[in-house]
Amino acid sequence: MPTNTLQTFTAFYDGWLLRHHRLQQQLLAAGNGGHHHQPHKLVQQATDHYREYYEEKSTATEEDVFLICSPPWHTSFERALFWVTEFPPSLLFRFVNDLDLTADQAGRIEAVRAETLRKEREIGETMAVVQESAAAAPLYGLVNRTGLLVDGQVSELDDAMEEVKEAMRVVMVAADGLRGRTVAEILEALEVGQMVKFFAAVGEFRIRARRIGLEMDRAAFLQLQTAILYFHESSFPLHRRKKKSPNTSTAKFLAAKDG
Fold first, then answer.
1. Maximum distance among all alpha carbons in the chain?
2. What are phi and psi of 86, to 5 degrees?
């Protein structure tokens, strides 16, 4: 059984991704004109699917906030697109462009978009302040002097780190809360058929971003392997030649000793 936050959440996320692909197939089929006898149930399944992810993420954040800040279960490409540990909520509005909105729907969603962007800026600015505080005195100075710390200074460092971690947790909770509210308010403006297409578009984006990220990470790994192989091929033969050419005087001494 997993024994720490990394193992636990990685195991959960692997299973969540498998369920995500199965759900995505149903959403795409229904969204592309296929008949689904219970579209409301399908929308509820999608809502529950993402709620499960964020509930598990919230638990992991409480256990190890720094791990969630740079989650290794995501690819480098995915993390490059992130805003406060996940895709920004403003990204969601790209997925309503092809939903044939009425004028009333478009107006309601535009109001949600404006409020989301405002809150996104506020949370982003707060996170920037928290990150700056992590490098500010006395924390930065204490980290630089870790090898020389006495008991009182260790306690001071622990207290400072706890303050930073708690501040980061607060920002992450606010960011995920904004994501949840944004989805809920978008769904309130949509008809059920549009909801299905919306979730299908969101899910497909996640799958494609991960696929691109995996390909990029694999290519980077192969490049690293090639570089290491080239280094060994260019240096190791010289090492072997030196090893096979013993000193002449040493060879004569060994020959005389054998005789």
1. 104
2. -160, 175
The DSSP code sequence of 39-89 is HHHHHHHHHHHHHHHHHHHHHHHHH-HHHHHS-TTS-HHHHHH-BTTB--G
What is the C-alpha separation between 82 and 118, in angstroms, rounded?
17
Task: Tell me phi and psi for residue 83, to 5 degrees.
Answer: -130, 115
CA distance 19 to 13: 10
Q: What is the DSSP string of 139-192?
A: HHHHHHTGGG--HHHHHHHHHHHHHHHHHHHHHHHHHHHHHHHHHHHHHHTS-H
Per-10-residue mean pLDDT for the chain, 259 residues long? Answer: 79 98 95 75 97 97 92 95 96 95 97 98 95 67 53 59 90 97 98 96 97 93 76 62 52 51
Six-digit token pair at 43?
């929308």
76's CB contacts (< 8 A; 6+ apart) are 213, 216, 217, 220
CA distances from 209 to 96, 110, 215, 228, 234 (A): 18, 26, 10, 29, 37
CA distances in angstroms from 156 to 84, 125, 132, 135, 141, listed in the order given:
27, 27, 18, 15, 11
- Global pTM? 0.79
Following DSSP, what letter does each residue of 186-239 receive, concatenated? Answer: HHHTS-HHHHHHHHHHHHHHHHHHHHHHHHHHHHHHHHHHHHHHHHHHHHHHHH
Cβ count near 165 (within 10 Å): 17
